Amino acid sequence: MMFQSFDSPADPSAGPARLAALRALMVQEGLDALLVPRADRFQGEYVAPCDERLAWLTGFTGSAGFCAVTAGEAGVFVDGRYRVQVRAQIAPVFTPVDWPETKLADWLRPRLDRGATVGFDPWLHAVEEIESLRKALDHGGIRLRPTPDNLIDRLWTDRPPPLPRPSCPIPTRWPANPRSRSGPVSPQPCRRRTRRPRW
């Protein structure tokens, strides 16, 4: 029999105080719910320590997941790879949610009143994810609203600094298109890249 193994450097005991502080900030911002994904603005699988907002809030350190915080509940959505891990790492104030079996919109609707507002950091979500969620919540009269900054970052006082990303100058002797040495190349139409929404 195979057992899931993982390192657990997170401290679940910090979760309740951080969640309470986040909820107080949500009230100040007029938000009834907030989305906290494990993501950065590049939408890659690996994120820098300064972007580990989900781990900071919940204690969950898996490589995929997100949290939906309302006034009464905070669900941590994870897929089958992390269902043992999430229960070991989060405090009882957080609720593990099996994803994708449970859709985010289906989880939010019964927990929010009509006219409620769900906040999200627009830098951390793909456009198609937000549009998909917006359509799913329209039926319940729930609206999405981008936040002017990241609420977690306001609370994370010892947040690590962003990693330096030095620029790499390209020598002018390199052509923009290597094939251009042999003559002009007919332009090809751009195809929009599609990706499956997180929720």
Automatic annotation (TrEMBL):
<keyword id="KW-0378">Hydrolase</keyword>
<dbReference type="GO" id="GO:0004177">
    <property type="term" value="F:aminopeptidase activity"/>
</dbReference>
<dbReference type="InterPro" id="IPR029149">
    <property type="entry name" value="Creatin/AminoP/Spt16_N"/>
</dbReference>
<feature type="region of interest" description="Disordered">
    <location>
        <begin position="151"/>
        <end position="199"/>
    </location>
</feature>
<keyword id="KW-0031">Aminopeptidase</keyword>
<feature type="compositionally biased region" description="Basic residues">
    <location>
        <begin position="190"/>
        <end position="199"/>
    </location>
</feature>
<dbReference type="InterPro" id="IPR000587">
    <property type="entry name" value="Creatinase_N"/>
</dbReference>
<dbReference type="InterPro" id="IPR050422">
    <property type="entry name" value="X-Pro_aminopeptidase_P"/>
</dbReference>
<keyword id="KW-0645">Protease</keyword>
<dbReference type="Pfam" id="PF01321">
    <property type="entry name" value="Creatinase_N"/>
</dbReference>
<feature type="domain" description="Creatinase N-terminal">
    <location>
        <begin position="18"/>
        <end position="140"/>
    </location>
</feature>
<feature type="compositionally biased region" description="Pro residues">
    <location>
        <begin position="159"/>
        <end position="169"/>
    </location>
</feature>
<protein>
    <submittedName>
        <fullName>Xaa-Pro aminopeptidase</fullName>
    </submittedName>
</protein>
